[in-house]
Amino acid sequence: MRKMNFSAGPSVLPLEVLEEIRDQIVDYKGKGLSMIEASHRGGMFEEMYDECLSLFCKLLGIPDGYDVYFLGGGATLQFTMIPMNFLTPDKCADYAKTGTWSNKAASDAMKLGRVNVFFDDKEAGYTHLPDPKTIKPSPDSAYVYLCANETIGGIEWKDFPDTGDVPLIADMSSDIFSRPVDVSRFGMIYGGVQKNLGPAGATFIIMRHDMLDRRNANLTAYMDYALHAKDRGLYNTPPVFSIWAVKLVLEWISRNGGVEGMDRRAQEKSDLVYSVIDSSPFFRSPVDKAVRSRMNVVFRLPNEELEAQFLKEASAEGMMGLKGHRSVGGLRASLYNALPLEDVQALAAFMKEFERKNA
Ligand SMILES: *Cc1c(COP(=O)(O)O)cnc(C)c1O
Questions:
Q1: Distance from Cα 29 to the centre of ligand 1, integer Å
Q2: Separation between Cα atoms, residue 277 and residue 331, nearest integer Å
Q3: Low-confidence ranges of the chain (pLDDT < 70)
Q4: What is the reported pLDDT for 182?
Q5: Is 296 helix (H, G, I), strand (E, B) or coil?
Q6: Which residue ranges does the chain devote to CATH 3.40.640.10?
Q7: What is the pTM of this model?
Protein backbone atom coordinates (compact mmCIF):
# COMPACT_ATOMS: atom_id res chain seq x y z
CA MET A 1 0.00 0.00 0.00
CA ARG A 2 1.30 3.46 -0.86
CA LYS A 3 1.74 5.87 2.01
CA MET A 4 -0.22 9.08 2.33
CA ASN A 5 2.69 11.42 1.75
CA PHE A 6 2.43 14.85 3.40
CA SER A 7 6.18 15.56 3.04
CA ALA A 8 7.33 19.10 2.33
CA GLY A 9 9.83 18.05 -0.31
CA PRO A 10 10.79 15.94 -2.11
CA SER A 11 7.14 15.10 -2.10
CA VAL A 12 4.28 13.08 -3.48
CA LEU A 13 4.06 12.52 -7.23
CA PRO A 14 0.94 11.50 -9.16
CA LEU A 15 0.68 7.70 -9.16
CA GLU A 16 -0.06 7.80 -12.89
CA VAL A 17 3.26 9.55 -13.48
CA LEU A 18 5.21 6.99 -11.46
CA GLU A 19 3.54 4.23 -13.46
CA GLU A 20 4.37 5.91 -16.75
CA ILE A 21 8.00 6.22 -15.68
CA ARG A 22 8.02 2.55 -14.67
CA ASP A 23 6.59 1.54 -18.05
CA GLN A 24 8.97 3.72 -20.09
CA ILE A 25 12.18 3.66 -18.10
CA VAL A 26 13.82 0.76 -19.97
CA ASP A 27 12.57 1.43 -23.47
CA TYR A 28 11.23 4.92 -24.13
CA LYS A 29 8.33 4.75 -26.61
CA GLY A 30 9.85 1.69 -28.33
CA LYS A 31 13.07 3.48 -29.26
CA GLY A 32 15.25 0.81 -27.66
CA LEU A 33 16.76 3.34 -25.26
CA SER A 34 15.90 4.92 -21.94
CA MET A 35 15.34 8.67 -21.76
CA ILE A 36 17.97 8.76 -19.03
CA GLU A 37 20.52 7.09 -21.31
CA ALA A 38 19.98 9.45 -24.24
CA SER A 39 22.24 12.37 -25.12
CA HIS A 40 20.89 15.79 -24.27
CA ARG A 41 22.17 16.84 -27.73
CA GLY A 42 20.05 14.22 -29.46
CA GLY A 43 16.58 14.26 -30.98
CA MET A 44 14.93 12.02 -28.42
CA PHE A 45 15.74 14.31 -25.50
CA GLU A 46 15.28 17.53 -27.45
CA GLU A 47 11.83 16.57 -28.67
CA MET A 48 10.76 15.75 -25.11
CA TYR A 49 12.34 18.97 -23.79
CA ASP A 50 10.56 21.12 -26.41
CA GLU A 51 7.25 19.57 -25.44
CA CYS A 52 7.99 20.06 -21.75
CA LEU A 53 8.83 23.76 -22.14
CA SER A 54 5.92 24.51 -24.42
CA LEU A 55 3.47 22.78 -22.09
CA PHE A 56 4.98 24.64 -19.12
CA CYS A 57 4.46 27.99 -20.90
CA LYS A 58 0.99 27.11 -22.14
CA LEU A 59 -0.34 25.87 -18.80
CA LEU A 60 1.03 28.85 -16.88
CA GLY A 61 0.06 31.35 -19.57
CA ILE A 62 3.56 32.79 -19.88
CA PRO A 63 3.48 35.77 -22.24
CA ASP A 64 5.94 36.41 -25.09
CA GLY A 65 9.22 37.98 -24.08
CA TYR A 66 10.10 35.48 -21.37
CA ASP A 67 12.87 32.87 -21.44
CA VAL A 68 11.87 29.58 -19.81
CA TYR A 69 14.27 26.74 -19.08
CA PHE A 70 15.61 24.42 -16.35
CA LEU A 71 18.91 24.53 -14.50
CA GLY A 72 20.54 22.39 -11.81
CA GLY A 73 21.70 23.49 -8.38
CA GLY A 74 18.27 23.74 -6.75
CA ALA A 75 16.49 26.90 -5.75
CA THR A 76 19.43 27.56 -3.45
CA LEU A 77 21.83 28.28 -6.31
CA GLN A 78 19.45 31.04 -7.41
CA PHE A 79 19.98 32.79 -4.06
CA THR A 80 23.51 33.45 -5.41
CA MET A 81 22.87 33.78 -9.13
CA ILE A 82 20.20 36.45 -8.75
CA PRO A 83 22.39 39.01 -6.93
CA MET A 84 25.45 38.01 -8.98
CA ASN A 85 23.58 38.94 -12.13
CA PHE A 86 21.36 41.81 -11.06
CA LEU A 87 22.77 43.46 -7.95
CA THR A 88 25.07 45.89 -9.74
CA PRO A 89 27.51 48.07 -7.72
CA ASP A 90 25.45 51.26 -8.23
CA LYS A 91 22.24 49.73 -6.88
CA CYS A 92 20.66 48.00 -3.89
CA ALA A 93 18.22 45.11 -3.77
CA ASP A 94 14.99 45.12 -1.74
CA TYR A 95 14.24 41.90 0.18
CA ALA A 96 11.27 40.86 2.31
CA LYS A 97 12.27 38.52 5.14
CA THR A 98 9.20 36.37 5.67
CA GLY A 99 10.70 33.07 6.77
CA THR A 100 13.53 30.61 6.28
CA TRP A 101 13.83 30.73 2.51
CA SER A 102 13.73 34.49 2.01
CA ASN A 103 16.20 34.85 4.90
CA LYS A 104 18.62 32.52 3.15
CA ALA A 105 18.21 34.41 -0.11
CA ALA A 106 18.77 37.77 1.61
CA SER A 107 21.87 36.62 3.47
CA ASP A 108 23.49 35.38 0.25
CA ALA A 109 22.66 38.67 -1.48
CA MET A 110 24.21 40.63 1.42
CA LYS A 111 27.54 38.98 0.68
CA LEU A 112 27.43 40.26 -2.87
CA GLY A 113 26.09 43.79 -2.58
CA ARG A 114 23.87 46.30 -0.86
CA VAL A 115 20.58 44.92 0.48
CA ASN A 116 17.64 46.81 1.89
CA VAL A 117 15.33 44.64 4.01
CA PHE A 118 11.91 46.29 3.66
CA PHE A 119 10.05 43.79 5.85
CA ASP A 120 11.26 41.49 8.62
CA ASP A 121 8.74 39.64 10.77
CA LYS A 122 11.38 37.98 12.96
CA GLU A 123 9.88 39.28 16.23
CA ALA A 124 6.55 37.60 15.54
CA GLY A 125 8.19 34.38 14.32
CA TYR A 126 7.44 34.99 10.65
CA THR A 127 3.69 34.69 10.88
CA HIS A 128 2.61 37.81 8.91
CA LEU A 129 3.16 39.39 5.51
CA PRO A 130 3.13 43.06 4.59
CA ASP A 131 0.23 44.55 2.65
CA PRO A 132 1.50 44.47 -0.97
CA LYS A 133 -0.04 47.90 -1.59
CA THR A 134 2.30 49.53 0.93
CA ILE A 135 5.48 48.26 -0.72
CA LYS A 136 7.61 50.75 -2.65
CA PRO A 137 11.03 49.92 -4.09
CA SER A 138 14.06 51.91 -2.92
CA PRO A 139 14.97 54.77 -5.28
CA ASP A 140 18.08 52.91 -6.46
CA SER A 141 16.58 49.42 -6.37
CA ALA A 142 17.86 46.78 -8.79
CA TYR A 143 14.98 44.45 -7.93
CA VAL A 144 12.41 43.58 -5.29
CA TYR A 145 12.65 40.04 -3.97
CA LEU A 146 10.13 37.86 -2.14
CA CYS A 147 9.33 34.21 -1.46
CA ALA A 148 5.76 33.54 -2.63
CA ASN A 149 5.22 30.64 -0.24
CA GLU A 150 7.38 30.01 2.81
CA THR A 151 7.37 26.23 2.89
CA ILE A 152 8.56 25.95 6.49
CA GLY A 153 6.50 28.73 8.11
CA GLY A 154 3.36 27.98 6.08
CA ILE A 155 2.78 31.53 4.90
CA GLU A 156 1.82 32.57 1.37
CA TRP A 157 1.49 35.88 -0.47
CA LYS A 158 -2.08 36.14 -1.76
CA ASP A 159 -1.27 39.15 -3.93
CA PHE A 160 1.98 40.74 -5.02
CA PRO A 161 3.31 44.30 -4.90
CA ASP A 162 3.29 46.52 -7.95
CA THR A 163 6.94 47.52 -8.24
CA GLY A 164 6.62 49.65 -11.38
CA ASP A 165 9.79 49.67 -13.46
CA VAL A 166 11.75 47.80 -10.81
CA PRO A 167 11.69 44.06 -11.56
CA LEU A 168 9.90 41.82 -9.07
CA ILE A 169 11.61 38.48 -8.44
CA ALA A 170 9.83 35.60 -6.70
CA ASP A 171 10.79 32.18 -5.38
CA MET A 172 7.76 30.01 -6.18
CA SER A 173 9.35 26.66 -5.34
CA SER A 174 6.46 25.45 -3.26
CA ASP A 175 3.38 27.00 -4.84
CA ILE A 176 4.08 27.11 -8.57
CA PHE A 177 1.20 25.57 -10.58
CA SER A 178 -1.10 25.65 -7.55
CA ARG A 179 -2.80 28.86 -8.68
CA PRO A 180 -2.94 31.15 -11.71
CA VAL A 181 -0.15 33.72 -11.74
CA ASP A 182 0.08 36.88 -13.82
CA VAL A 183 3.65 36.32 -15.00
CA SER A 184 3.76 39.74 -16.69
CA ARG A 185 4.05 41.36 -13.24
CA PHE A 186 7.40 39.63 -12.62
CA GLY A 187 10.90 40.09 -13.96
CA MET A 188 11.73 36.59 -12.81
CA ILE A 189 10.04 33.59 -11.20
CA TYR A 190 12.00 30.50 -10.26
CA GLY A 191 11.91 27.44 -8.05
CA GLY A 192 13.03 23.89 -7.43
CA VAL A 193 10.65 21.38 -9.01
CA GLN A 194 10.66 18.91 -6.12
CA LYS A 195 7.66 20.36 -4.27
CA ASN A 196 4.89 20.68 -6.82
CA LEU A 197 6.30 19.56 -10.15
CA GLY A 198 8.53 16.53 -10.08
CA PRO A 199 11.46 14.72 -8.51
CA ALA A 200 14.44 16.74 -7.25
CA GLY A 201 17.05 17.85 -9.75
CA ALA A 202 15.68 20.60 -11.97
CA THR A 203 15.08 24.26 -11.14
CA PHE A 204 12.67 26.17 -13.37
CA ILE A 205 13.59 29.67 -14.51
CA ILE A 206 11.06 32.10 -15.99
CA MET A 207 12.79 35.36 -16.88
CA ARG A 208 11.71 38.41 -18.84
CA HIS A 209 14.23 38.61 -21.64
CA ASP A 210 15.10 42.28 -21.07
CA MET A 211 16.33 41.42 -17.55
CA LEU A 212 19.50 40.27 -19.27
CA ASP A 213 20.34 43.89 -20.21
CA ARG A 214 20.68 44.71 -16.51
CA ARG A 215 23.27 42.13 -15.56
CA ASN A 216 26.72 42.55 -14.13
CA ALA A 217 29.73 42.18 -16.40
CA ASN A 218 32.35 39.41 -16.14
CA LEU A 219 30.16 36.62 -14.86
CA THR A 220 31.59 33.12 -15.00
CA ALA A 221 29.87 30.84 -17.47
CA TYR A 222 27.40 28.93 -15.32
CA MET A 223 26.48 32.02 -13.32
CA ASP A 224 25.46 33.97 -16.43
CA TYR A 225 21.73 33.85 -17.21
CA ALA A 226 22.38 35.13 -20.74
CA LEU A 227 24.25 32.00 -21.59
CA HIS A 228 21.48 29.77 -20.24
CA ALA A 229 18.80 31.79 -21.99
CA LYS A 230 20.61 31.45 -25.30
CA ASP A 231 20.86 27.66 -24.95
CA ARG A 232 17.49 27.27 -23.17
CA GLY A 233 19.22 25.64 -20.22
CA LEU A 234 21.28 23.27 -22.36
CA TYR A 235 24.64 25.03 -21.95
CA ASN A 236 25.73 22.06 -19.84
CA THR A 237 24.11 18.70 -19.14
CA PRO A 238 20.63 19.32 -17.73
CA PRO A 239 19.00 17.14 -15.02
CA VAL A 240 17.43 14.89 -17.64
CA PHE A 241 15.49 12.53 -15.41
CA SER A 242 13.90 15.31 -13.40
CA ILE A 243 12.92 17.22 -16.55
CA TRP A 244 11.34 14.15 -18.12
CA ALA A 245 9.30 13.54 -14.98
CA VAL A 246 8.25 17.21 -14.89
CA LYS A 247 6.93 16.82 -18.42
CA LEU A 248 4.81 13.86 -17.31
CA VAL A 249 3.55 15.83 -14.29
CA LEU A 250 2.63 18.75 -16.57
CA GLU A 251 0.64 16.36 -18.76
CA TRP A 252 -1.10 15.12 -15.62
CA ILE A 253 -1.89 18.72 -14.62
CA SER A 254 -3.22 19.33 -18.11
CA ARG A 255 -5.53 16.28 -17.86
CA ASN A 256 -6.76 17.51 -14.48
CA GLY A 257 -8.02 20.96 -15.35
CA GLY A 258 -4.72 22.84 -15.72
CA VAL A 259 -3.71 25.51 -13.24
CA GLU A 260 -7.38 26.35 -12.57
CA GLY A 261 -7.99 22.72 -11.68
CA MET A 262 -5.00 22.73 -9.33
CA ASP A 263 -6.24 25.98 -7.79
CA ARG A 264 -9.63 24.41 -7.00
CA ARG A 265 -7.97 21.30 -5.58
CA ALA A 266 -5.68 23.42 -3.40
CA GLN A 267 -8.64 25.36 -2.04
CA GLU A 268 -10.71 22.29 -1.33
CA LYS A 269 -7.87 20.38 0.35
CA SER A 270 -6.59 23.24 2.49
CA ASP A 271 -10.15 24.19 3.52
CA LEU A 272 -10.60 20.66 4.84
CA VAL A 273 -7.58 20.86 7.15
CA TYR A 274 -7.98 24.49 8.22
CA SER A 275 -11.64 23.92 9.05
CA VAL A 276 -10.60 21.19 11.51
CA ILE A 277 -7.94 23.50 12.98
CA ASP A 278 -10.39 26.38 13.31
CA SER A 279 -13.14 24.22 14.78
CA SER A 280 -11.41 23.71 18.12
CA PRO A 281 -8.88 25.29 20.49
CA PHE A 282 -7.19 21.87 20.60
CA PHE A 283 -5.51 22.81 17.31
CA ARG A 284 -3.74 26.08 16.76
CA SER A 285 -2.39 27.70 13.61
CA PRO A 286 0.45 30.16 14.38
CA VAL A 287 -0.01 32.00 11.08
CA ASP A 288 -2.07 35.13 10.36
CA LYS A 289 -5.30 33.74 8.91
CA ALA A 290 -5.22 36.09 5.90
CA VAL A 291 -1.96 34.66 4.61
CA ARG A 292 -2.07 31.00 5.58
CA SER A 293 -0.51 28.75 2.98
CA ARG A 294 -2.65 26.36 1.00
CA MET A 295 0.39 24.22 0.28
CA ASN A 296 1.96 23.87 3.73
CA VAL A 297 -0.48 23.80 6.63
CA VAL A 298 1.44 24.42 9.86
CA PHE A 299 -0.31 23.67 13.15
CA ARG A 300 0.27 22.94 16.82
CA LEU A 301 -1.34 20.76 19.46
CA PRO A 302 -1.59 21.76 23.14
CA ASN A 303 1.88 20.32 23.95
CA GLU A 304 4.86 18.56 22.42
CA GLU A 305 4.04 15.19 23.95
CA LEU A 306 0.70 15.18 22.13
CA GLU A 307 2.46 16.22 18.93
CA ALA A 308 4.83 13.27 19.22
CA GLN A 309 1.91 10.95 19.87
CA PHE A 310 0.02 12.42 16.90
CA LEU A 311 2.96 11.67 14.60
CA LYS A 312 3.27 8.13 15.89
CA GLU A 313 -0.41 7.32 15.49
CA ALA A 314 -0.60 9.03 12.10
CA SER A 315 2.35 6.96 10.95
CA ALA A 316 0.56 3.77 12.02
CA GLU A 317 -2.31 4.86 9.74
CA GLY A 318 0.10 5.24 6.79
CA MET A 319 0.36 9.03 7.01
CA MET A 320 3.92 10.29 6.73
CA GLY A 321 5.80 13.59 6.53
CA LEU A 322 3.65 15.41 9.10
CA LYS A 323 6.48 16.56 11.36
CA GLY A 324 7.15 20.29 11.28
CA HIS A 325 10.56 21.47 10.08
CA ARG A 326 13.22 20.96 12.75
CA SER A 327 13.78 24.72 12.94
CA VAL A 328 10.19 25.47 14.04
CA GLY A 329 8.81 22.21 15.46
CA GLY A 330 5.11 21.43 15.58
CA LEU A 331 3.24 19.77 12.75
CA ARG A 332 2.97 20.48 9.06
CA ALA A 333 0.82 18.92 6.37
CA SER A 334 2.04 19.68 2.86
CA LEU A 335 -0.84 19.45 0.41
CA TYR A 336 0.89 19.68 -2.94
CA ASN A 337 -0.91 19.25 -6.26
CA ALA A 338 -0.31 15.51 -6.52
CA LEU A 339 -1.65 14.69 -3.06
CA PRO A 340 -5.04 12.97 -3.55
CA LEU A 341 -8.11 14.55 -1.96
CA GLU A 342 -8.85 11.22 -0.23
CA ASP A 343 -5.57 11.46 1.68
CA VAL A 344 -6.53 14.90 2.97
CA GLN A 345 -9.98 13.62 3.94
CA ALA A 346 -8.27 10.81 5.84
CA LEU A 347 -6.03 13.32 7.62
CA ALA A 348 -8.95 15.56 8.58
CA ALA A 349 -10.86 12.56 9.98
CA PHE A 350 -7.77 11.38 11.85
CA MET A 351 -7.29 14.85 13.38
CA LYS A 352 -10.88 14.95 14.63
CA GLU A 353 -10.61 11.47 16.08
CA PHE A 354 -7.29 12.32 17.74
CA GLU A 355 -8.88 15.34 19.31
CA ARG A 356 -11.87 13.32 20.53
CA LYS A 357 -9.55 10.87 22.28
CA ASN A 358 -7.07 13.39 23.71
CA ALA A 359 -8.72 16.75 24.27
C1 LIG B 1 12.65 23.84 -0.82
C2 LIG B 1 12.75 25.30 -1.05
C3 LIG B 1 13.96 25.92 -1.40
C4 LIG B 1 15.26 25.17 -1.51
O5 LIG B 1 15.26 24.35 -2.60
P6 LIG B 1 16.55 23.48 -3.01
O7 LIG B 1 16.11 22.95 -4.34
O8 LIG B 1 16.71 22.43 -1.96
O9 LIG B 1 17.71 24.38 -3.11
C10 LIG B 1 13.94 27.28 -1.63
N11 LIG B 1 12.82 27.99 -1.53
C12 LIG B 1 11.64 27.42 -1.19
C13 LIG B 1 10.42 28.28 -1.09
C14 LIG B 1 11.58 26.06 -0.94
O15 LIG B 1 10.40 25.50 -0.61
A1: 33
A2: 12
A3: none
A4: 98
A5: strand
A6: 15-255
A7: 0.98
